[in-house]
Amino acid sequence: MKIFDTISEMGHEQVVFCHDPTSGYRGIIAVHSTVLGPALGGTRFWQYESDGAAITDALRLSRGMTYKNAVAGLNLGGGKAVIVGDNKTTNREMIFRAHGRFVESLGGRYVTAEDVGTSTMDMDYVHMETDYVAGLAQRSGDPSPVTAHGVFRAIQASAKYRWGSDDLANKTIAIQGCGNVGLYLAKELHAAGARLIVSDIDAERVRRVVEASGAKVVGPDDIYGVTADVFAPCALGGIINDDTIPKLKVEIVAGGANNQLLEERHGVALEERDIIYAPDYVANSGGVINVYSELAGWDSTRSLRKADEIYHTILGVFEIAKADKIPTYEAADRLAERRLHMVGSLVKTWPSWPNKE
Questions:
Q1: CB neighbour class for 50 (10 Å; exposed up to 12, middle 13-18, buried from 19)
Q2: 245-267: average pLDDT
Q3: What tens digit of pLDDT does each residue of 49-83 get?
């Protein structure tokens, strides 16, 4: 990988490689954009197959956060951090305190939070070394309820666009992934009168969702082929691909997973099958809204109210796609780029320098 060519092509401002020999910490902090505000994005802890894979993940995820924060209407840029290693290790304090020191060294350009392989307890360790961290247990805490509510509203908006009504009563929703987001989403859909089909590789997670919603259970590989109105991916990314698209028997794809399209062309493939796709980083932006609420001092009620706006944002994306005759994933990017351009073009009213009293 030619790192400078890559970050130039992707538009990154800064990439920091971090190492602490005492704790064994190895991390990468990628700051994609600070046009809208400090770069916010979680810290992922993962055993990557190579350093190149870790760099690629950090770059891709940080750019995604810029677009997600922009579309959500937040005064935040996009960033991401990855820690390379075994996320099941019990030796966590020194690793995350080392990470916190490197976050602190950026002076507020990057604000971190939990992500895959990390927890609110890990963020408490980070907080021992820096204030530039959100998602702390005693503050906004678990973002899953707000994330799930945003996905629920995205499904409603997609239903409105497809069928002329956002009433989900008697609609069949297939949920892939029964983690916290899948659980809260199932509860909201069940309360709205939807019929649910679910799958997960973890039997205990499936049991929780079934108890909460009365969902029907199918095997992990069978969820793609069930007959339903909506497919809601809430687990791994890259699951909309050449193998799964031909199996889908739905009219809408809208879920909480990140990076659902394995490649951009798979968004086109959904269009060709007349399947509406609610772009993932719009639908699942409730998570970052929850984190922003902590930084802005919002209460949970205001966070949920902000997540409600995802409904209108999704409809706006669909309208751009229709008007410009482009796939919805591209329309979402255009919506984000419009906000980045507009805010970035505002007249800067700096004080005189040096500031003489």
A1: exposed
A2: 95
A3: 999 999 999 999 999 999 999 999 999 999 999 99
- Residue pair 236/139 in contact (Cβ under 8 Å)? The answer is no
Tens of pLDDT, residues 326-346: 999 999 999 999 999 999 888
**68, 80, 171, 306: the active-site residue:** 80
Angle, CA of 329, 263 and 282, to the nearest 5°: 30
Radius of gyration of the chain (CA): 20
Q: Among this protein's residues, is 249 annotated catalytic?
A: no
Task: Report in angstroms the alpha-carbon separations of 48 from 44, 97, 200.
Answer: 11, 21, 23
252: left (phi over 0), alpha (psi -120 to 50) or beta: beta
CA distance 103 to 76: 16
| DSSP codes, 211-268 | HHH--EE--TTTGGGSB-SEEEE-S-SS-BSTTTGGG-B-SEE--S-SS-BSSTHHHH
The CATH number fitting domain 3-65+77-127, selected from 3.40.50.10860, 2.60.120.260, 3.30.1360.70, 2.40.340.10: 3.40.50.10860
Q: What is the pLDDT of residue 136?
A: 81
Q: What DSSP element (H or E) covers 280? A: helix 280-283
Cβ distance 260 to 239 under 8 Å?
yes
Beta bridge partners of 114: 43
CA–CA distance, 11 with 330 (Å, rounded to integer): 17
Taking Cα atoms as reference points, which of 154, 183, 150, 144 lies closest to residue 253? 154
Q: Which fold has domain 144-339?
A: Rossmann fold (3.40.50)
Per the confidence metrics, is the pTM higher than 0.90? no
pLDDT beyond 90 at 186: yes
What letter represents residue 335's amino acid?
A: L
**Would you say the CATH fold of 144-339 matches that of 3-65+77-127?**
yes
At 147-166, the pLDDT tens digits run: 999 999 999 999 999 999 99
CA torsion sign for 107, 282, 224, 322 is negative
What sign does the dihedral 161-162-165-170 (CA atoms) show?
negative
Where exactly are the structural domains of the chain? 3-65+77-127, 144-339
The predicted pLDDT at position 351 comes to 62
